[in-house]
Each structure stands twice: as C-alpha cells, then as structure tokens.
User: What shape does this take?
Amino acid sequence: MKSYLKMSRKELEELKEQLTKEYREFQGKNLSLDMSRGKPSAEQLDLTMPMMDVLNSKSDLIASDGIDCRNYGDLNGIYEARKLMADVMGVAPEYVAVYGSSSLNIMYDTVCRAVVHGIMGSTPWSKLEKVKFLCPAPGYDRHFALTESFGIELIPVEMTPTGPDMDVVEKYVNNDETVKGIWCVPKYSNPTGVTYSDETVRRFAALHPKAADFRIYWDNAYAVHDLYEDDQDELLNIFEECKKVGKVDMVYGFASTSKVTFSGGGLAAIAASANNMEDIKKDLSLQTICFDKINQLRHARYLKDVETLKQHMKKHAAIIRPKFEAVLNALNKELSGAEIGSWTTPKGGYFISFNALEGCATEIVKKAKEAGVKLTGAGATYPYKKDPKDSNIRIAPTYPSVEELKQAVELFVLCVKLTSVEKLLENENELQKGA
Amino acid sequence: MKSYLKMSRKELEELKEQLTKEYREFQGKNLSLDMSRGKPSAEQLDLTMPMMDVLNSKSDLIASDGIDCRNYGDLNGIYEARKLMADVMGVAPEYVAVYGSSSLNIMYDTVCRAVVHGIMGSTPWSKLEKVKFLCPAPGYDRHFALTESFGIELIPVEMTPTGPDMDVVEKYVNNDETVKGIWCVPKYSNPTGVTYSDETVRRFAALHPKAADFRIYWDNAYAVHDLYEDDQDELLNIFEECKKVGKVDMVYGFASTSKVTFSGGGLAAIAASANNMEDIKKDLSLQTICFDKINQLRHARYLKDVETLKQHMKKHAAIIRPKFEAVLNALNKELSGAEIGSWTTPKGGYFISFNALEGCATEIVKKAKEAGVKLTGAGATYPYKKDPKDSNIRIAPTYPSVEELKQAVELFVLCVKLTSVEKLLENENELQKGA
Assistant: This one.
C-alpha cells in the first residue's frame, strides 16, 4: 500500500472523496457494536458453567482447614483458595488474602488505607501536601481514575517495548519523597500487551525509594491469559527478585479470576509480605468480618490447582485468538505501509493498542461512534484522560463475535484512513498558509 | 431467692465458700464453650442448603433486567435482588444497592467515603478538626471500632427501653456541628433487644441537624429476625417518616442476609435517597466494576420475595428460640430476687443483655473464661470498650447447642453469684475501714 505521507494533495483529495462515500454507506448500516471494554464473551463464560454444579445441597461446605464456609470467620480466605491464587501469583499462600470478587476493589482499598491510615506507621497521605503516583502510559484507565479521586497527582511515564521507561521511574522513585506508588500491569499490559522484561523487573526490585511508604502496585491481571500455547511471555517473579535484595515489603500484588471464571463473580486476591499483610489486616478486620467463602470453595474445588486452571485458560484462548486475529488481519491488510498507524501484536491479555497519526485519535473514535462502533474513549489510556499526542486507541476484541468484529474493524480502519487524510490535508493547508 | 443485698456478712462468707467450691468443680470439667459472637449455628445454616441447587450448569443466569450475571456490569445490583432487600428494608427498589456480602463493609465504606471525599459536597471529615458520632450504648462493638479507627470521637448515649435517650440525641445533633452521625440498630438492638418506639423514630425524623452532612446510620440488622410468631416488635419505617418531613437524605439504611442465608456469604445492601445514592455511586464506580451478581441471582431465586423469606425466618426462630429460653430460664431460676443482676427478654435479634452489679462485669467474664466459657469481652458494648459501670455483658446464645448452653449458663450464673458475693464483701470491708 502506498504511504499516505507520500501522496500528493490531489491524491489525498480523491481518496478523501472515496473514503467519505464509504463511510456514509457504513452509517446507513445501523451498526451497534462495542469494542470498548475488556469483557469476556458469553461463549467464554459458558466454559465455567460446570462450576455451578460443584457445590450443591448434598455438599460438604467445610474447607480443608476445618472451617464451615457457610459461617463467619477466616478473614484471609480459606487455604485452598489462597493456595490457588498464590500459585497464579507465584508466591507462598501465607502471602495471600482472598478478598472479595474484585481486584479493583482491593486496589482501591489499598490506596484508600494509605490515604486514611498510612502504610506501616507512615504519615497518612491525607496529611501530606502532595502525593504522586507514576502511571506508565498508555495504561489502565481505572487505575488512573482511582488514584485521581484521592487527589493524588498522576505522573505519566512512557511505556516502552520492555515496560515503563525505567530511567524515568528510577529518577522519580529514588529522589522524590512524594512519589508513593507506581501502577503496573506487568504481563500482557493493558493496553499495549507488553510483558515487562527481566531487566525491567530487576530494576524494579533494585529501586531505592526515597519514601518509606512507596509501593509497587503490581496488578497481574493477565498472569495466565496467554493467547498461544507455543509462544508465551514469561514474567520474572517480582516477589522473588525483591526478596533477594531484602525489599519484599516494596510490592503489593493483585490478581483475580474475573477473566478465568466469571467477571465480577470470581475471586480476587492480594499478595503481600508478612509485614504488609499484618498492616493490612489491622484495618481489614474493622472493615468486614469475612468475605464470601462459599464462592472461594466453589472456585477451589472447580479449578483444583494452577495446572488445571491453565488447561481451562487454553479454552479461553481458543475462543478469543480468532478475534485478535480478525482485528490484526484487517489492520495488516488495510493499513500496512500506509504509515498512518501502528499497532501491537500481543501474545496475551485483552487488548490491541493502536497508535494513530498525532491529533487523530479523538476524531477516529468520534467517527466510529457516529457509524455505530463504540471504542474506548480517546485519551482514556492516559492520566487525566489526556493523551498528549491524541494518538492512542485501545481496541478490545474479546466481547463481540468474529463476524461482528470483522464489521467493526472494517469501519475502524475506514475511520483511521478518513481521519488521517483529513489531517494530512489540514496540515498541508496550514503549511501553505505559513509559506 | 433471698436478696444478696440483704445478707449478713456471715451469710455472704458462707455463700462464697460454697460458690467457690462449685466453681472449682466447674474448672475441673474442661469446658470449651463460646457465647461470645452472634453467629448462627450449623443447624440454622443447614436451612439454606437448598439454595445450593437453585443455580446449576443448566441454569439461565440472565437476570430479569436482561443482564448476564456472569459478566461485568450493573453496579447497583440486579433488580430482583434489590427488590428483595428493599422489601426487607421497607423502601422502593430504586433506593437500594446490593453491595457485596457484608453490611459492615458497606458501613465502613460509607464512613470512609465521608472521611475522604465528604458527603454531597461537604468538607471531607479528614479536613476537620473534630468529628463526633453518637453511640447508643450498650451497642454493637464493631460500629464503635470502625468509627474510632478514623479518629472520630465516640459519644455514648444511654439506651432506654424505647431506644437511645432522645433528649441527649436532639441536644447534640441540633446544636453541635461536629456531630456527623449516630449508630442505630433500631430493631432487636444489639445487645439490648430493644426496638425503637414509634415516638423515638418520629423524633429521629424530626431532628434538625446542625451539620448538613449529619446522617443516621440505621443498621437494620435484625429486621426480620423475630423469635415469636405471635409477639413481634414493629419498627416504624424511618424512610417514610423522614419523607413526610422532607428529610429523606438524613438516613442511610443497611441490612444483610448474613443471618438469613449464609453468614459472610449472603447479600448486603444499602438504602438511601436518590441524592445520597448519586453521591455514593460517584465513588463506588471508581471502587469496583460490580459485585457478585450470581450470588444475587441465587438469593433472589431462592428467597423469592419477602413473604417467602419470612417463612424461612420462622425456621430460624424454631431453632434459636429454645436457646434463648434455656438462658432465660436459668437466669430466672438462679438469679430472680437475688438483686445481683438484671437482663433483657428480647423478642428477636441475637442477644441477651445482662447487667451485673457495678464493677463486676470484667471479673465475671474473666471467671467464666477461666472455667472454659468465652463471653464477649466486658466493656465491648461501649465506646472505647469502656463501660463506665463495668456492668454490661452481652450473651450470644445462638451458636452453641441447647445442651452446651445449659452448661455454659450454669457456669455463667455461678460466676455472677461468686463475683457479686466477693464484691459485696469487698464493699463491706471498705465501709468498715471508712467507719
């Protein structure tokens, strides 16, 4: 395909006319498709239906540690559920509390606790003039919104193919006492699909935070969410790396089964050192008596162990792989060589990250919406929803069917092309005015 | 029985000798019983086992509003679960959000939100010099501990047979801007069993709080927890009373099915006005994507409606009524006329509240513990765990079997008698010294 950047004004104008015509045709189709959120499809959720039979009225609802799951007690969660989530997170079960159904809720509570009560005796953040969080970007919008709601200043850090720009991370963390945390999705990152390199993880472990209450918020949301059996990313275990250098208090780990079993009805867990866990439990014991242990038992008995869980994840992969491929094929076919966008080819996770020409993302999302395809809002992947280049768009291919996706991505590439042509013509007009 | 207060020194000393002998015999029995927490017994939990069959792999997990309960979405909870909890709480379903499994957790979050973000635009409590909560006492220890953890000052208000002393409540709420809330368990109150009278509820609705962000924290934990079919307390609906006087924003209501279905594995809900709900949802949407809707659906399909739920509660009553009666019979038989204690005869809820002679509660609990019966810590029912009279002891009769309870209460009355005799002798010694 010819590069749009090398087209003459006349070529661009002709192309614009053609693309506008195609776009109008799309508008007549009354599409209503959604590529905006990382939700599993109904077909994926069907995979877990046998879990509904695991516990029934004839079941023994006594956990392996002798606790009756139907009654109060066991704030940290039953052993078999902790063991399962610990294996997913690569830590010992005693480091893990299974804590409701939503890892986002655990992260919210963890930040909130630091704001109100402080971490391990440090000053509560609400009493400090300024608190900053590093936000590798593009990243997960809900992480950013959560910290923003507490008045925490969000500092964007550029994502590279090996993880966040660690030079910038080190400079901030090791020198600035107001930097109290960094949001990380270290494997199949949202939305870039990047898995942090071994060197990046080691550099995280080697941080010397200026603030004693600095923590790495390690949201391992896609720990077991590989797309391919024979080509998987391996993430170095940050708890082990931190332990080697005596800094195991520096990390909070988070994970859930929301994209393993049922979304919002799964298990969520926190992994933290003994010191951190003691600190957390002090407040947690005021917050609730216990979490739903019946759902914990149901999960533990159904998923059995991390190996069985990984077999289960292969079935998810078989469903969503063709969806990723449908999007990627269309992008490759329609945009390769056009030099109006670049995109990631992830080996796992839930997203494809697309970078348009500067200044085009908002308009692409708008055009797609007006023709019936909902995309994540432009800018959503950046702190304060401000993408400095107005370039990044997150594509979530898991929820629609392959057929729907093919339509949606056809419209998407059309919107990319049309917006890019308009932009290039606009740039040329401005150049002429300037000349 | 002869009043202990009328016994001569010699009589008391003889009695002490006899009681000490009996107490030593008890110590030899190696009892290990627990009357400390309001937990249902295994037999009660068995009542809900059929709920485990309601959803299975062949089920339709689509809620009445068309939402797939297996996926993300519906932050407020599915309609049928909200309707059920709304009927329990006596409000319209649009006032209700079903919010996890733990009403304590909702209360914690509600207070925390006010501390961090403020209520409907008011100054966050963390920015105020002083925040006070009124604490009807004796009351629920976890309420008090929760607010204490945020540095909120706890003001005890005396419980009367019709509810908190409303003269004191009115004086504080209507005049002191730092008073931001009051904890209420309005029906079958923990631990006194008192249900607030109609006049008390009306006086609550008629409050003119000095603080715009004052709220009544109305924990209707025992809304449907009657012991007798033919003798039940009726609680006036505070939402309706507040609506009549245009103050529906003044109340947050809380309830759960922890003592209806499974403890810690049930449904918890908040009821609040449209304004309050909007205010809550603003933060809640940052906190989590949704709660476990599968458990909501399971409950809604099993419990069906509030009438079916009340039938279910009759089965609970049939199990725990004999336990309350075992305790009350022993207290009546062993302590009537002795003038060394008074106790409540509740028509519902989970507790019997016992008042010993002043200065005796700590010693009674200690003696019981040393002979193998665990009671709620003396003082626990008061703010800061300080019972000014060291008199109140909460008895929780639901968890042990009737046989165990009979033993436990036999020891309990013995400890009451022995401690009282020791106290009376001590008082006499002091009087003599003074003379």
Summary: The first strand of chain B starts at residue 33 and ends at 35. Chain B touches chain A through 54 residues (CB under 8 Å). Residues 323 and 401 of chain B are 7 Å apart (CA to CA). Chain B has two domains: 4-44+310-434, 62-303.
